[in-house]
Automatic annotation (TrEMBL):
Keywords: Amino-acid biosynthesis, Aromatic amino acid biosynthesis, Cytoplasm, Transferase. Monomer. It comes from Robertmurraya siralis. CDD domains: EPSP_synthase. This is 3-phosphoshikimate 1-carboxyvinyltransferase. One of its GO terms (molecular function) is 3-phosphoshikimate 1-carboxyvinyltransferase activity. Pfam families: EPSP_synthase. GO terms for biological process: amino acid biosynthetic process; aromatic amino acid family biosynthetic process; chorismate biosynthetic process. InterPro entries: Enolpyruvate_Tfrase_dom, Enolpyruvate_Tfrase_sf, EPSP_synthase, EPSP_synthase_CS, RNA3'P_cycl/enolpyr_Trfase_a/b. Phosphoenolpyruvate binds at K23, G95, R123, Q170, R346, R388. The lineage of its organism: Bacteria, Bacillati, Bacillota, Bacilli, Bacillales.
């Protein structure tokens, strides 16, 4: 297996970064642009592989999309403008693409099939296909609809009331996207508040919805109107540099244009709780709340992360685990079983790869326990094809005593194609 040597023992990180567009919002801006009537212009679009897959899938459904770098223009013709694809829709590595598209395709009266890569082939889909079947769609897939390939013949939907069995924005979004095409009202009740980008998008595109605590109601048959979307920077990408700045000595980094939607800012709350020297400046609205975040080298202490906090930082847990190795005392992460069904089983891969670097960390049924503060040594580690594990290990190497080599570095392009350029620009 080919490995790539990573930077070691960084003396300091200094400078500023313009954080690339949010992945969740980039996907949704293409999808809503496609199902709305009229033109949608998107700026600061994320050019990671996952979002490019979403564009490719909608082009196969007949939607005209122009994309050049971070600007994309979608020429939507409403839900009825989507056509039966003559080819299979391949979502690559992207869980968000397949789960949200299933919600859209569930309402379309034509046949479509969806596949993805090896990792997608192991991720559970009945959490989405089951409620879509109760709305009235015909959907089937391998192992009783649990895995790809999945085939859909949609149309003829009627609204339902559905209590989510897991805290998942992807499941919530799939049901709302199907609900927009159903007869009558669709109600989704969440277990914990998850990212609300879909709810905000529906309203931004001129649709109506009611949110009351954990209950969301949407009426079917509403027309959506194309609009402009300026995508905020992705806090999940910024997270790698927030942690790098906190753990590398003599560091000060300004991360500009970071999305600060409260359903996503768990990492900021947890880092502050752990004692991080973190400031938020220049808060403003740019489609969603955004601001600039300044992080300096910090003296950190362990904490417990659990319950409703988990969905607010679910994708940041790998990098928070690294942060905890550099904090005094014990950090406990609980209620995070969902990590087992991401691009990899992120409980296992985080624990195994950080152990290879010399960390004291153990897995539990629903999370992990990390003992700090630990000098990391270095070694040969792997992303296991998981972008967030790859970036976490690249940040870990900055505080390792010896050389670290990373297998399968390519995975990082899924969500942060410029990651290494950005890192190099801070290494002075
Ligand atoms: O809706 C979204 O854009 C996402 C929701 C989360 O997944 P789940 O809904 O499976 O928790 C998250 O992990 C993923 O990176 C993006
Ligand atoms: C889980 C992730 O994405 P997805 O579910 O879209 O593959 C992620 O980006 O960490």
């Amino acid at each position: 297996m080919k490995t790539t040597p990573l930077a070691i023992n960084a003396a300091k990180l200094q400078g500023h970064l313009q954080i690339p567009g949010d992945k969740s919002i980039s996907h949704r801006s293409i999808m809503f642009g496609a199902i709305a009537n009229g033109t949608t212009t998107i700026t600061n679009f994320l050019t990671g592989d996952d979002c490019l897959r979403t564009i490719a899938c909608f082009r196969k459904l007949g939607v005209v999309i122009e994309q050049e770098g971070e600007r994309a223009v979608v020429f939507g013709k409403g839900f009825t403008g989507l056509n039966e694809p003559s080819e299979v829709l391949d979502v690559g590595n992207s869980g968000t693409t397949i789960r949200l598209m299933l919600g859209i395709l569930a309402g379309r009266p034509f046949f479509s099939t969806l596949i993805g890569d090896e990792s997608i082939g192991k991720r559970p889909m009945t959490r989405v296909t089951k409620p879509l079947l109760s709305l009235g769609a015909n959907i089937d897939g391998r192992s009783g609809g649990e895995y790809t390939p999945i085939a859909v013949r949609g149309g003829g939907l009627t609204g339902i009331e559905y209590r989510l069995p897991v805290a998942s924005a992807q499941v919530k979004s799939a049901i709302l996207l199907a609900g927009l095409q159903a007869d009558g009202e669709t109600t989704v009740i969440e277990t914990s508040k998850t990212r609300d980008h879909t709810e905000r998008m529906i309203q931004h595109f001129g649709g109506k919805l009611e949110v009351d605590g954990l209950t969301i109601k949407v009426q079917g048959g509403q027309p959506l109107q194309g609009t402009n979307v300026e995508v905020p920077g992705d806090i999940s990408s910024a997270a790698f540099f927030l942690v790098a700045g906190a753990i590398v000595p003599n560091s000060e980094i300004m991360l500009k244009n970071v999305g600060l939607n409260p359903t996503r800012t768990g990492i900021i709350d947890v880092m502050r709780e752990m004692g991080a020297d973190l400031q938020v400046k220049n808060e403003r609205e740019q489609f969603e709340p955004v601001g600039d975040v300044i992080i300096k080298t910090s003296t950190l202490k362990g904490t417990t992360i659990e319950g409703d906090m988990i969905p607010r930082l679910i994708d940041e847990i790998p990098i928070i685990a690294l942060l905890a190795t550099q904090a005094e005392g014990v950090t406990i992460i609980k209620d995070a079983e969902e990590l087992k069904v991401k691009e990899t089983n992120r409980i296992d891969t985080v624990v195994r790869e950080l152990q290879k670097l010399g960390a004291k960390i153990e897995s539990t049924n629903d999370g992990m326990i990390i003992y700090g503060k630990q000098q990391l040594l270095g070694g040969t580690v792997s992303s296991h094809g998981d972008h967030r594990i790859g970036m976490m290990l690249a940040v870990a190497s900055l505080v390792c005593k010896e050389q670290t080599n990373l297998e399968n570095i390519e995975a990082i392009s899924v969500s942060y194609p410029n990651f290494f350029n950005h890192l190099e620009s801070l290494l002075k």
